[in-house]
Design a protein that fits this description.
The structure is a homodimer of 110-residue chains. With 110 residues, chain A is an alpha+beta fold. Chain A has one domain (2-109): Winged helix-like DNA-binding domain superfamily/Winged helix DNA-binding domain (Arc Repressor Mutant, subunit A, Orthogonal Bundle). The first copy, chain A, has five helices and two strands. In chain A, strands 1-2 form a two-stranded antiparallel sheet. Chain A starts with a helix and ends with a helix. In chain A, 25% of the residues are buried. Chain A binds chain B through residues 1, 3, 5, 8-9, 11-16, 18-20, 23-24, 27, 38-39, 41-44, 61, 89, 92-93, 95-97, 99-104, 106-108, 110, and chain B through 1, 3, 5, 8-9, 11-16, 18-20, 23-24, 27, 38-39, 41-44, 61, 89, 92-93, 95-97, 99-104, 106-108, 110. Chain A binds a DNA duplex (30 and 30 nucleotides) through residues 10-11, 13-15, 17, 31-33, 46-50, 52-54, 56-57, 71-78.
Chain lengths: 110, 110
DNA sequence: TTCAATACCTTGTATCACAAAGTACCAAAA
DNA sequence: TTTTGGTACTTTGTGATACAAGGTATTGAA
């Protein structure tokens, strides 16, 4: 029941991960480990056990597709790509995110 | 398994409710129904079954205290107030929120 | 006394992030 | 050839929490 800074950040991130994944894949295709890297540089620490099921969920929803690609450094990688449906969803989420930011700003005003 | 706009918004809000409650109570004390009203005007629809347990959790963490006040319009109301610890937590959350917004902006940049 | 409005609370369910452990592939060292 | 280390994908169990739905209690007006 601690309230570390990490806990606070982790808590605030809930539900936003999905948005972040789509945003990254909108720029370029990526596989799980590279997504984790990019999320980390943006200050969002995510672990495998969180990311893999999330990617599978998004794929099952038709937001993503993937293709296998050989790697010179180990086993093959699953590269994920945004589908048309994923792009639509991302557009909706961009709007929702904007409204969320504005909503919180409005709460902050007296 | 639908992806309505409402679902998208609801999903993005997860974990941010706690932050919103503290932010509102930092401006003025409030009771549950008035919090729901203010959250609604900020575009965050919350139901009683969500809010009451959340307030109890925050109170048990020492972030909030409350006092009863008679109402002319029905049963007495539980007015919640930020404690010193709650203000500290809010300051931390302000920082975390700022970093979250910047983190997402950075993801959006190519 | 009955009803409607207001306010607080609880229970059951689904979802989701995480920790931890497991499976599989590959290349280089022993 | 076998072992080891690194990389990558997956699954299981747990805890937290948002929500739907239903319950309790107070007040004032019909």
């Amino acid at each position: 029941m601690e309230n570390t800074v990490e806990n606070v950040r982790s808590q605030m991130r809930k539900g936003l991960l999905e948005y972040c994944i789509l945003s990254i894949l909108d720029k370029r295709e990526a596989y799980a480990s590279s997504l984790i890297e990019e999320l980390k540089t943006a200050g969002m620490i995510v672990v495998e056990g969180t990311l893999y099921p999330l990617l599978i969920r998004q794929k099952n929803q038709g937001l993503l597709s993937y293709r296998w690609e050989e790697s010179t450094q180990g086993p093959p990688r699953k590269y994920y790509v945004l589908t048309d449906k994923g792009r639509e969803q991302l557009a909706q989420m961009d709007g929702a995110w904007q409204e969320l930011v504005e909503g919180i700003q409005s709460l902050k005003r007296v």
